[in-house]
């Protein structure tokens, strides 16, 4: 493990929207390629990395249920969307010389391994990136909650939430030009102020298990590495 990194084992939460880039839907190969490029550097330096990926660039369960679809059924469709994203990430990683495994919470043995905690930890110890797909396998749980749950299960040092904004603000920076960005904030404050960093289930899970989280802007190249080295990138929630 390189001396320059503050964290040895990390879980990176990627939204599906992040993979869509400026197109807004589907998978933008350039975005995925840039991401793989950044991840290759930190993995080759010895950081153990797990990735939880969302599916909002293909299908959102909540949006489907808002249109009258059965919520559980809509969530299952959303889980399948995350598997597509996971396979796209795996392809990009392997083109960049990163060994990786997709583990799915819904059994799909032709394209992925089942999620088995001990096996996932073994992959991490061997330097493979573990891409965790299909959420928790349960409807009514978001991929934010999946990220918090897997981060606790895999005993990571930090949860990194990649977004399109450079941290946590006291109000929406797109609507309020005077919005104030926090360098650090407590989970209790996130909950009491109603800041939509993650849903309340995920936030409570991180808080109860003393798991720190870094919320940062994925669109600035090199931010993953900078955050892991302890530079002030985004907002630290603890």
TrEMBL record:
EC number: 2.7.4.22
Protein purpose: Catalyzes the reversible phosphorylation of UMP to UDP.
Binding site for UMP: 55, 75, 136-143
Summary of subunit composition and partner proteins: Homohexamer.
Gene (name only): pyrH
GO molecular function terms noted in the UniProt entry: ATP binding; UMP kinase activity
Entries under InterPro entries matching the protein: AceGlu_kinase-like_sf, Asp/Glu/Uridylate_kinase, Uridylate_kinase, Uridylate_kinase_bac
Protein name: Uridylate kinase
Principal location class: cytoplasm
Subcellular location: Cytoplasm
Modes of activity regulation: Allosterically activated by GTP. Inhibited by UTP.
Acetylation listed as a keyword: no
């Amino acid at each position: 493990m390189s001396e320059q990194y503050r964290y040895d084992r990390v879980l990176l939460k990627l939204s599906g929207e992040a993979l869509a880039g400026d197109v807004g839907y589907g998978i933008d190969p350039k975005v995925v390629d840039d991401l793989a490029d950044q991840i290759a550097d930190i993995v080759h330096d010895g950081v153990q990395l797990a990735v939880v990926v969302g599916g909002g660039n293909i299908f959102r369960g909540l949006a489907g249920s808002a249109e009258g679809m059965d919520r559980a059924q809509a969530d299952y469709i959303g889980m399948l969307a995350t598997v597509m994203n996971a396979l796209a990430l795996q392809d990009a990683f392997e083109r960049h010389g990163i060994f990786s495994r997709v583990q799915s919470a819904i059994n799909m043995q032709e394209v992925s391994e089942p999620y088995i905690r001990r096996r996932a930890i073994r992959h991490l110890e061997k330097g493979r990136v573990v891409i965790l797909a299909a959420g928790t396998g349960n409807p009514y749980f978001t991929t934010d909650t999946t990220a918090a749950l897997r981060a606790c299960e895999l005993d990571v040092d930090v949860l990194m939430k990649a977004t399109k904004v450079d941290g946590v603000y006291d109000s929406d920076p797109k609507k309020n030009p005077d919005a104030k960005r926090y360098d650090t904030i407590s989970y209790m404050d996130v909950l009491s102020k109603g800041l939509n960093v993650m849903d309340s289930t995920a936030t409570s899970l991180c808080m109860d298990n003393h798991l720190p989280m870094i919320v940062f802007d994925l669109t600035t190249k090199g931010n993953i590495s900078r955050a892991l080295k302890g530079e002030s990138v985004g907002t630290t929630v603890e």
